[in-house]
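hey all, quick one before standup. I had two proteins in the batch that finished overnight and I want to keep them in one place so we stop losing track of which output belongs to which input. First protein below, input sequence then structure tokens straight from the run.
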Amino acid sequence: MINKVILVGRLTRAPELRSTPNGVSVCSFSLAFDNKNKAADGSRTSSFINCTAWRQNAEFICNYCTKGTQVGIEGNLQERKYTRKDNTQASVIEIIVEGVTLFGSRNNNANNNISSNSVESNSGYERDNDIDATFGDEFDDIADDDAPFH
């Protein structure tokens, strides 16, 4: 079976680095992205997905990302079950981040693409600029309004 998720969105809050009792770095964050379909009134709708990153990915996100930073993440879906304080069972679906690419912050229009090592090794590209060379100029004429993420 295949369990692979690739999303591009913006962090809804600043990530916070924590450590497990064994010293493993972990950070949780929420990623917001625009949905393809619009609401009945014609406005865009957004989704918010919880994500968890471990080790180097967690440190990378906490070092380079703030609220509003646009990132691309690669990972897999995981269901986590737990017991609430009232003793009822609950579950959460989240993305476990395997790789991340930083596209920049909302306040920083410069295209400073930075990737964590795991994305570079998984993608086979050393830099994101190599993707431009692979696909050429076929996407240069897409208007900003037509892009799914703002």
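OK second protein, same deal, sequence then tokens:
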Amino acid sequence: MIQSLKIRNFQSHKKTDLQFVDGVNVIIGSSDSGKSTIIRALRWVVWNKPSGNAFRSTWGGETSVKIEMDSHHITRIKDKAEEYILSDSTDSLSFKAFGKEGVPVEISNTLNLSEINLQAQHDSPFLISATPGEVATHFNKVARLDKIDQATANVNKWVRELTADIKYKDAEVKRLEEQKETFRYLQKMEIEIEVLEEMQNQVKSKGKKVNDLSVLFNSWLNVSMEKNEKAAILVLEMPLNNILSLYEQKRLRFEESERLRIFLIGFDQINEGLEEYGKLLEIETPLNNILGLIEKKKALFLRLQGLKQAVSTLNDISTNLKEMIENKRLLEIAFKKEMPLICPLCESYVQPIKNK
């Protein structure tokens, strides 16, 4: 059941909110006050009629009609684009791509309204002024007979199409059978072609064997020619091996002599080093004595530096002490001059300070 209707910028309605109750709801108003526009707004949501923009208010703004039902809300909006919004307490769906005549199926099923539910003031009485054909069409829709008629028409159409297709296929089969008679010689030709293909394969196989034999024969000739060319070299193989063996022995002897030469050079260098180390050992004891004296001199020098630093510090302390004693004497003289014999705080006699 429709609980409320909210109209915005639809003809004369800028902002209209209508609340409905159970039973009969009556809308009263003078002529041209917008009563029919309310039905027109409902038709715009239910059947997407009227189309165009003539019903939109002249003052501009987004045009919308919202129908609030028990569990769903349906809103139709028209501005730069058109949109249906179907919402409930948990979800919301938006429909934008629909034709001029089409209303989304979800919207139609939710509203569940027909022309019987929306009768205008000037509409003719329902089915009374309709022609017999219109009445029959309406009741066929109510009883869903129109669906049966449409289904029967579709089936008959499919039967006609299949019958025509069968006739065409039969004619095609007949034509192919007649054409087949003209190609009976192909079976015999096929056998002959298979025999020729087998013979061709045998020729290819034997040709391959001939090529392999030819390659093998050419390889044998090349090996024979190389053997004859290298026969003279084989005669010289034994003397050449002896020469190579002697050369290898000579190379080993040369390497051994080089190692001995390097060893002797190292031995001479070691002897020279031992002579130098012997000379150093002779002066080791005097050198150690000199180094000990140098270390003692360094220690005495460090002690001397410490004593000089201590004397300098003592002199500084003595100078500071003399300055502090002189400052004390001067302060006592100043105090004696400024301080009376009777203390202004405790009124007792003050012993005068003697000058030193």
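Flagging for whoever picks this up: The two ends are 125 Å apart (CA to CA). Residues 185-235 form one domain.
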